[in-house]
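pipeline: protein-struct stage 2 | run 1193 | Flagellar biosynthetic protein FliP
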Amino acid sequence: MRSAFTAARQRPVRLFTRLCLPLLLLISPAAFAQLPGIISQQLSNGAQNWSLPIQTLVFITTLTLLPAMLLMCTSFTRIIIVLGLLRNALGTPSAPPNQVLLGLGLFLTFFVMAPVFDKIYSDAYQPFSENKITMQDAMDKGAQPLRQFMLRQTRESDLALYARLANIPPLAGPEAVPMRILLPAYVTSELKTAFQIGFTVFIPFMIIDLVVASVLMALGMMMVPPATISLPFKLMLFVLVDGWQLLLGSLAQSFYS
């Protein structure tokens, strides 16, 4: 019963297909050529460019991937990890708050990446906005400054690791590294560098915690939390050495050393 009902429903579809298919085959291909381009359009210099709907689709897709690109392809990862480790080393889990750390990390990221963004604008966006290059060429030219920045911060051992895992042949040079190898290698290198800087930041504050805990133990004040006593000393040390200028300046310089 069910099979008969299904066959009855499929008869109009089959009839429509048999009637329309010959009509579609009879249409001349030249008629399609006279229609406006949906995928691409001709530029004044003879090159092919993506049409406006396709460009809009690519732009919206890029906006959805923007948070991931900010985390994976810029200096934001190293900066935000170091700032979080600094807050833990000070023993103040809520000061500065997360919003302040994120804002500081974003603005410092824009400061560090400003030369890269300027080069992307001058080499890719500006010629594309003047219709001198296609969108594909603009994407290729815009990826080069970001690629060079990532290569400078990536360790060769991390590149070799992911190249070996991907089973790719030996690379001719840094320019031949594919993005699927460069992205995870760059993130791994950034995590290593961030934890190394965080270890350096932790040492002076850990010494203060050990000294305060030893003094409290010697005085028999075992019920007093050492963190409560050591916090003012850590804050005073951080302020006296101008810790914010030292840390943020060192973070910014670490990307160009």
